[in-house]
Amino acid sequence: MPINIPKELPAREALKGEKIFVMDEDRARTQDIRPLNIIILNLMPEKERTELQLLRLLGNTPLQVNISFLRMTTHESKNVSKSHLDTFYLTFADIKNRRFDGMIITGAPIEHLEFEDVNYWNELTNIMEWSKTNVTSCLHICWGAQAALYYHYRIGKYALPKKLFGVFKHRITDPTIELVRGFEDEFNAPHSRYTAVPMEEIEQDPRLILLSSSEEAEAFIIMSKDAKHIMITGHLEYDATTLAEEYTRDLRKGLDTEIPKNYFPDNDADEQPLNTWRSHTHLLFSNWLNYYVYQQTPYQWD
């Protein structure tokens, strides 16, 4: 089934080229089914790239999904045009009286800041508070996961000795949980961050389940027991080349960034990296949409 996105969204042609079924608003209105309404709060600087990565995953399910994009009004995005934001993005004022079946809050390259020092923290906390009653299930990615753990569960973050950068093996703690249904016992996932969340506090919190962790990357998939919040500390949505491009950018900035671990063939940065996490990424997004959004959301909100 398709994802319903605006006709002029730049990601549309790329998705069609990948044979992902997209539908415009006019055709969607003729479908006599109840589509899922998903709102994506895109905090990443390269918004169009993140749009494509997430839409590719949301379009790989048997469900019709209506997508809306949300932006912050208390922060000026420098890597995307104002016309793109004005055309395709809503503000919290536009949606605060609406309800959504699912929400995705992306990462953001601001982990060096304390949460309260982020210029849009108050706006973000208003959105997260609103989501408690207006969204069935929220999926939080990387810094978005850290923000959710801090706001909803008062679990903070801490600085790592050096950047956690590369592709790491993770293990599942409970394969019977529907979010990880179909996962191998051990699977790969990419990370790119300077901070981490304390695994011991997550394990000790009776409201949370640690579903997956890694010896090097530590806590990875965390879910609240009521399935309201799912926190992913890495970047399963990344393309095969995303870490390579980030590595090149870091070097150009003069940063002392080590080559991403377990990523380039033969650890050679001139080799084309392979995507070794794609199948589990699709599984996670499909399982989230099916078990925690579609099967839990009311057919009609009150």
Could you outline the blueprint of secondary structure elements for this entry?
Blueprint: E1 3-4, H1 11-17, E2 22-23, H2 25-28, E3 36-41, H3 47-58, E4 65-70, H4 82-88, E5 89-90, H5 92-95, E6 100-105, H6 121-134, E7 135-141, H7 143-153, E8 158-172, E9 186-196, H8 199-204, E10 208-214, E11 218-224, E12 229-232, H9 242-252, H10 278-294
Parallel strand pairs: 1-2, 1-4, 3-4, 3-6, 4-5, 6-7, 7-12
Antiparallel strand pairs: 8-9, 8-10, 10-11, 11-12
Account of the protein in words:
This protein is of the alpha/beta class and 302 residues long. The protein has a single domain (3-239, 276-294), classed as 3-Layer(aba) Sandwich (Rossmann fold). 31% of the residues lie in helices and 25% in strands. Strands 1, 2, 3, 4, 5, 6, 7, 8, 9, 10, 11 and 12 form a twelve-stranded mixed sheet that branches. α1 crosses α3. The protein is globular. The two termini are 26 Å apart. This is Homoserine O-acetyltransferase. The active site is at residues 142, 235, 237. GO terms for molecular function: homoserine O-acetyltransferase activity; homoserine O-succinyltransferase activity. Transfers an acetyl group from acetyl-CoA to L-homoserine, forming acetyl-L-homoserine.
